[in-house]
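In this section we walk through a basic example: taking a raw amino acid sequence and producing a predicted 3D structure, encoded as discrete structure tokens. The instruction is simple. Fold the sequence below.
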Amino acid sequence: MQIHNLQQANSILNRYLAEIRDVEIQNDLLRFRKNMERISEILAYEISKSFDYETEIIQTPLGVSNINLPKDKLVIASILRAGLVMHNGFLNRFDRAENAFVSAYREETKDHSVKIKVEYKACPDLTAKTLLIVDPMLATGQSMALVYKSLLANGTPKKIIIASTIATPQALSYLETVLPATTSIWTAAIDPELNDKSYIIPGLGDAGDLAYGKKL
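The resulting token sequence is shown next.
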């Protein structure tokens, strides 16, 4: 499995990460969504370098130009509801992609353990396509693993890419054991630990709440 941590190199990405983490700036839901969209666009640009390309001849008004264009048949799959905050950023860059949506949420049981439930799914045929699964926070990796498993009912993709804003070493280690070895994971940052409720530390809190308001 290949893991790409974009924060290993300094860039304007640092500014957007700082703002989505800042407890004061987080009060502005619109700004939080916009920064998450910007982060997604940067991730999309970097991910695009891993695609397969073919040369096409483009007719201009004055001649022809040979341009290498991506040939991956891409499906962007976002995990509801938090994944929506990144989805548009990826669509801004991959505007020819097909789209999939899956709901996955954590439910606390009577013994205070946490179960992951996957319910709603809308997905095209994935056979021989590049599947890009988007989720802002890779905390334990369990939601991602269950979503991936549910998506396979729609066909076997040629390539699997996972994109997140913040991941943990625990999630990356877990996903390495349950996803194909050829999977690549792209994240804007890796934070060191989880608290007892499986929230990333220092993280940023609940991405879905920060984007769309608190839920009951």
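Looking at the output, two observations stand out. The longest strand covers residues 98-108. The chain has a mean pLDDT of 92. In the next section we compare this with other chains.
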